[in-house]
Structure formats: structure tokens, C-alpha cells
Amino acid sequence: MADLSNFKTLCAILERNGFNLKKSLGQNFLIDPTVCPQMADEACADADAIIEIGPGAGVLTVELAKRAKKVVSIEIDEKLRPVLKETLAEYDNVEVVFGDVMKIDLNKLIDDKLQGMKIAVCANLPYYITSPIIMMLLESNLAIESITVMVQKEAADRLCAEMGTRECGAVTAAVRFYCTPSLLFNVPRDSFMPPPKVDSAVIKLDISGKEKEYDVDAVSFFKVIKAAFSMRRKTLVNCLSNGLKMDKQAIYDILDSCEIDRNARGEQLSMEQFTAIANTVKKDVK
What is the side-by-side order of every strand in the sheet holding 94-98? Predict the structure, then answer.
């Protein structure tokens, strides 16, 4: 099997199949030989089947195929069909589905192709669609154990930030509602072809058993989170009053009842404090 992490080898395969890199689709092919095996080890530690998003030329796919019983890779770019046919020719446990992961019914895909298997998701996500894909995966109530993904380093820091720190935001709280995130390792920009302008990092989102951790109405919780981080330079009182369409005195009363400082900002609160606010206001939030 050709070494897909070798720059010249990968270029030859792409050229042979008439494929040109498309920056519009965020296609930066991974050429560091150490990264994909580490990602595959992490993803397959939880599962015997993998859903891969965006296989590209198949560099990560090959490593997943070596470790998993079954790999279903979802690729949006039809022009990669001949490339993947060549790079994955030796692996009969890989199936490539061409389509937009944001539009595919993943629950049906799991029922049709991976039923009865322990499943994890693994992906090297394009920077421009990182958060939408991650939130779609988390909100879809999929029968998966974990998500191991490579994302922009800045996004990784935000997604894995501790609650109550300056780095956290609405997406931090949203992710922690569904899973336990951890930053595994950094990936420098020269690990890709062509090299992007920023560094990357691999993170893991552990989903198993997380859904019962917080006793809170989800609709109310996410309305509170969205409001709390809507104006980062403003206090929590101002953000909640504006975002929830409630007068400031009502917000003061809620914060007092939850024993939260009236001068606090959204990034200073814990998940438990956000949960307390959401449970208090759920009858008033429309």
C-alpha cells in the first residue's frame, strides 16, 4: 500500500486521478505520518465501528480501517471518488457515502449499515464548518460513544475550555451539556498540504452516559446560554434581560435566588449555575 502521508506519493495519486485541491471545501490534506494513527487509536478505543466525516484522500480512513471492523466515510466531494477507490482498494471494511453530512439522516445510516455495533465518529473537520457539524452530531441523539475530531486550535481551546474561565463561550456550555470534552494533542500547520494559516488540535468528546448529568429543561437551558453570551462585554443581568425579554429586576431576583453575584458575567458561571438559572426561568422563557 502506498504511503499516503508522503507528500510526493499523495500528489501523484491526486494528479493521476485528475483532482485539484479546493480551498472552498477546506481541503488541506494531512501528511504528518504520526497524526492519523493517534487519532485512529483514540476513536477506536471506544468502538468497533467508525463514522468518518470528510475522508479526503483517505489518509485517516486507512488507519481507521486497520483498527475498526467497519468504517463508513461520508465525503461531500464527488471528484474524490476515483482517489478513494485507489487509496482504499485494499480495505473491504470501508464504505464511502457521498453526500453532505449536514443533510444525511445519520440515524438511518446507523440503522442501515452499523446496527448492533459500538460506534464512534472521527473526522478532520474543515475550519469553516466545525461548530455546526459538532453541534449537529451532538443534537441528533445518535447512538455513538464519542467524537474524535481535528479542528482549528482556537476552536479546540474554546470547545474544551473550563466553565468559569475567560476562554469559555456559548459553544463551550453547549458542548458540555452533551459530552465531556478533552484536548488530546496539537497539530502544527506544516502537517498539511497545502499548509493552512493556523495550527490545529485533536479533541475528543466523550458522550456515553452524559445525557443524564444535568437535570434541566434543554430548551430553557439553551435560551439562557444564548442570552448569557450574546454580549460578552456586558454583565449577565444585561445579557439575560435583553436576550430573555425580561426586566432587570426580575433577573436580579433570579440571580439572588440562585446565589449568583449580580455583577457576574456569563463566562464566570459554572454549568450548575446556568442549570439553576434555566430551571428558575423555564416557566417565563417563551
Answer: 94-98, 70-75, 49-53, 119-124, 146-152, 200-206, 180-187
Per-residue model confidence (pLDDT) at position 24: 47
Which helix (DSSP H) or strand (DSSP E) does residue 186 occupy? strand 180-187
Q: In this structure, are residues 240 and 228 in contact, taking their beta carbons and an 8 Å threshold?
A: yes
- The pLDDT tens digits of the residues spanning 111-131 come to 999 999 999 999 988 778 888
Bridge partners for 180 per DSSP: 206
CB-CB contact of 152 with 130 (8 Å): yes
Instruction: Walk me through the domains of the chain, giving residue ranges and CATH numbers.
Output: 7-212 (3.40.50.150), 218-281 (1.10.8.100)
User: Which stretches of the chain are DSSP H helices?
Assistant: 7-16, 35-44, 59-67, 81-87, 106-113, 130-139, 153-159, 170-178, 218-228, 236-244, 248-257, 271-281
Which of the residue ranges 111-115, 157-161, 191-195, 206-210 would you say has the lowest mean pLDDT? 206-210
* Integer Cα distance of 221 and 209 in angstroms: 19
Rounded Cα distance between 246 and 284, Å, is 9
Going by C-alpha positions, the residue among 27, 8, 35 that lies closest to residue 187 is 35
Angle between helical axes of 236-244 and 218-228 (0-180°, round to 10): 120
Contact 8, 33 (CB under 8 A): no
Which 8-state DSSP code applies to residue 162?
A: P
Q: What is the pLDDT of residue 159?
A: 95
Sign of CA dihedral 207, 159, 272, 139: negative
**Minimal CA–CA distance to 57: which of 121, 9, 129, 102?**
9
Cell triple for 254: 433570579
218 vs 177: CA distance, rounded Å: 9
Residue 194 DSSP code:
S
